[in-house]
Amino acid sequence: MNPTDIQDIVEKSKQTRGGLIGMLQDIQARYSYLPEEALSYISEHTNRSLVDIYGVATFYKSFSLTPRGKHLCSVCLGTACHVRGAPMIAEEFERQLGIKAGQTTKDKEFTLETVNCLGACALGPIVVVDGQYFSNVKTSKVKQILSETREGLDKVEVKTDERIFPVTVSCARCNHSLMDTGYLIDDNPSIRVTVSFERKHGWLRLSSLYGSYSVEAEYEIPLNEVLDFFCPHCHSELSGASECAECGAPMVPMIVRGGGIVQICSRRGCKGHLLNLGGANI
Amino acid sequence: MINLKINGLNVSVDKGTTLLEAAQSIGFPIPTLCHKEGLTPYGACRLCVMEIGEGDRAKLVTSCTYPAEEGLKVRTASRRVLRARRMIIELLLASSPQSKTIQDIAAAHNVKQQRFRQEYEDCILCGLCVRMCKEQMMAGAIGFRGRGQDRSIGTPFDIKSEVCRLCGGCLYVCPVCSLRCTYNQPDKAICGACANLSPPCVEKEPFDDMMCYMEPCVACEIK
């Protein structure tokens, strides 16, 4: 642990938000857990009692007081995944790794956790490893997922494809098609979603050509604005568990017909995106 | 002044008075567990429930946290209130039957049996000790940790807190504390904590070093 890092985080939050949870999140992002010294430091420098900070840190499940592993495996146990056998997947992970959910392997490689919904119910059972979505996971695939993670997901990850080709996508939650054949962008049916920002709520149409960044929107969207995306059919928020590798904004997952997930960055102007066909080749 | 009706009686109280204070001020007995003068109201034990409003809009509220309102109609012992209160007592008995405070309340309300799975918890999470530590002792050594069924009270990281002065205030206010109830095991009893009170049981072997905040002192009652 580096005290100056924590000092920076505390100082930064004093200048900006000043919230305890924000500070804890920054520390958790930096160290992947909350070291005891960090909590004492916050207590000393922000005039909060240690017991209150500890109470907050233990209340929220996203905070961890024990060191986490290098890779985080989240097994979805939401209703849709549950009925498709997610508990068996979680058990298989526990067996393969030799740990229980919420624990970290001895070699500090894997942390296993169960989550209650990842927002991609149509693809269940879902497993997310280091932000990489694996869809329709079967118990027989668990071993493969783990070995691919050990090798490094970057190697098996589908490389960002520079070629231009159209994709057909649907909502990750309700599986309704998001394609709008009546509105063409780049001479192809556009992808229609609902977005909201600054209390404005309107449609956004994206080019369905993978690699093209053409968009049209009901309202003028300022550059660098992070938008909330919603499905126009089920009105649920299109949000995933991962963040954009380029700018850190939340990624928006959509299902690609034929299997796989495409994720786009929710920040206007950011070109971060990820195409993951067929659940990373498995 | 705010005018309200408690059990049909007209009462005038200052602004900011809680229903519990208003009812007690005119002599209605309201059982409480997590309420103590000098500590902020918390509304955890729910024993002080009262019924407010009329007809379909009547509802149960915790009187220790509900401020008096103009024209409010309050019932402190309606059938609904008594039913709810008996249920709460049963639930308390189900979790901590060994507590003398809870036993006394149960006896006063004629609750002789509870219908749930019996547990023997050391803590009902009423938060008295947390508030005592923070508000009266100005220490903030103990607090709530975790949530849901994992919620517990203790020091951060379960190690001795640097701000704890061993004042024993937490033991003093605790209505359940099993620590005080270990008087039949001298080696396990902690009661050295209350050594700052006059020792009523010094001569009683083997409890010579132990005193207790219990009134009457449990150690003294052992023959």
Q: Span from first to last CA of chain B?
A: 54 Å
Derived structural class of chain B: alpha+beta
Radius of gyration of chain A: 20 Å
The interface involving the most residues is between: A-B, 12 and 14 residues
* N-to-C SSE string of chain B, H for helix and E for strand: EEHEEEHHHEEHH
Question: CATH first level of the largest domain in chain B: which class?
Answer: Alpha Beta
Shape of chain B: globular
The CA-CA distance between the termini of chain A, in Å, is 38 Å
General form of chain A = globular
Class from secondary-structure proportions of chain A: alpha+beta
Strand content of chain A: 25-35%
Multimeric organization: heterodimer
**Portion in helices of chain B:** 10-25%
Number of domains of chain B: 3
Q: Can you walk through the features of this model?
A:
The complex is a heterodimer of chains A (about 280) and B (about 220). Chain A has about 280 residues and is an alpha+beta fold. Chain A has nine helices and 15 strands. Chain A has three domains: about 5-60, no CATH class; about 70-155, 3-Layer(aba) Sandwich (Glutaredoxin); about 165-280, no CATH class. Helices cover about 30% and strands about 25% of the residues of chain A. Chain A starts with a helix and ends with a helix. By secondary structure, chain B is α+β, with helices and mostly antiparallel strands. In chain B, a hairpin with a 6-residue loop joins strand 3 (about 50) and strand 4. In chain B, helix 2 (about 80-95) packs antiparallel against helix 3. Chain B is globular, with a radius of gyration of 20 Å. Chain B starts with a strand and ends with a helix.
Descriptive key words:
heterodimer, A: 282 residues, alpha+beta, Glutaredoxin, five-stranded antiparallel sheet, four-stranded mixed sheet, 15 strands, B: 223 residues, Ubiquitin-like (UB roll), Alpha-Beta Plaits, 3 domains, five-stranded mixed sheet, two-stranded antiparallel sheet, 7 strands
